[in-house]
Design brief:
The structure is a single chain. This protein has a five-stranded parallel sheet, with helices on both faces. The protein has helices at residues 19-33, 53-59, 63-73, 91-100, 128-142, 169-192, and strands spanning 6-11, 37-41, 77-82, 114-120, 145-153. It is globular. The two termini are 17 Å apart. It has one domain (6-192): Flavodoxin domain (Rossmann fold). Helix content is 42%, strand content 17%.
């Protein structure tokens, strides 16, 4: 019998009470219900400075980029829950991946890695614009396999029940569907390798 698929979950915001953290945690519950093992990576804990070529030349790539790389390598798939800052993904996410790209094998570890995107926002669009920019960034620069299945949770400040799951049954079913699609893709890639 195969070992459970391993899913790495990242939230695009690290602030206390972040809606993307709540959505990430709801996705984690969905992954565990589907039989996957899961881990959370806190991008703030990587302590990555804003990318600067002069800093890299003087000090090298920070250890946090290696931590991110190793976490991606250790998991079959990646789910990113992104908020929306002025229509874009957060600098926290972009900066972490920019540093990852500076490692000699940083781009190799992301190539063909299955990725699912979910987004949250207090606004009506639920972070849809941010998610679309993040999709383009990850596919073009990092050659990840970003799944078509995605979810944007609008009015996210009202969307979660006391158990941490999405309160609306349709929204919860959509999130389950995104996670299951990601795990199916990860299983296909595991067996193809």
């Amino acid at each position: 019998m195969d070992a459970p698929l391993k899913l790495l979950l990242i939230a695009g915001s690290a602030r206390r009470g972040a809606l993307s953290v709540r959505l990430r945690d709801a996705a984690r519950q969905a992954a565990e219900r589907a039989g996957a093992s899961s881990a959370v990576l806190d991008l703030r804990a990587l302590a990555l400075p804003v990318y600067d070529g002069d800093l890299e030349a003087a000090q090298g790539v920070p250890a946090g980029a290696t931590t991110l790389r190793d976490a991606i390598v250790a998991h079959d798939a990646l789910l990113i829950a992104t908020p929306e800052y002025n229509g874009f993904p957060t600098p926290l996410v972009i900066n972490a991946f920019d540093w990852l790209s500076r490692l000699p094998d940083g781009l190799a570890v992301t190539a063909n890695k299955p990725v699912a995107l979910v987004a949250s926002s207090p606004g009506a669009l639920g972070g849809l614009r941010s998610m679309n920019f993040l999709r383009q960034y990850l596919q073009m620069a990092f050659q990840t396999l970003v799944l078509p299945a995605q979810q944007a949770v609008g009015k996210a400040h009202e969307a979660f029940g006391p158990d941490g799951n999405l309160a609306d049954a349709r929204a919860a079913a959509t999130l389950d569907g995104v996670v299951k699609a990601l795990l199916r893709e990860a299983a296909l890639r595991r067996h193809a390798g």
